[in-house]
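BUG: 3D viewer hangs when loading the predicted structure for this chain

Environment: internal workstation, default settings.
Expected: structure renders.
Actual: progress bar stalls at 90%.

Input used:
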Amino acid sequence: MKKRYIYALLFGVPGFFVSLIVSTIVFGGAAGIFWIFIFGDDPWPAYAEKLLSILLILGFLALWTASIVIGYKTGEDREDEPDLDSKHIVISAAAIFGLVIVIVLHQYLIGNIGPKDDGRLCSEFCSEKGYSASGMPPRDSGESSCSCYDNDGKEGMKVMMDSIKPDKKEGS
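Structure tokens produced before the viewer hung:
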């Protein structure tokens, strides 16, 4: 296989993750600018959401394409060398591993993966029971309960958190 294709792959795979992270950050920044300076808390027009989505997709594709093209050009320049530099493969693999770890760690820290905190457990419990809201006492109060509220904001149910937490013996 020609080096231009190998280097396109060596740059393209980590470039995928870098493009994903960077385009998401740019999307969040653009949404923040729209919110703070343009639309505020008023309902946003439909075109604003479409514009942000297009910005996210185009930014991702542009960055990813650029990383593949840079890899292709780098490989093209190295076609005359007899062997593939193993350092480049190690660097690419380390970049992929590091970027995947960053993404997984971020998702763990914001609660999308891993054990659910008490607030999320309480919210899901109340939603399953048909209530529109949930609440918990302050953490330093020493009380560990979950309150479910109806549409009028009245407490309809109060349960202890121990009764809704998943059994820790199931995972053993």
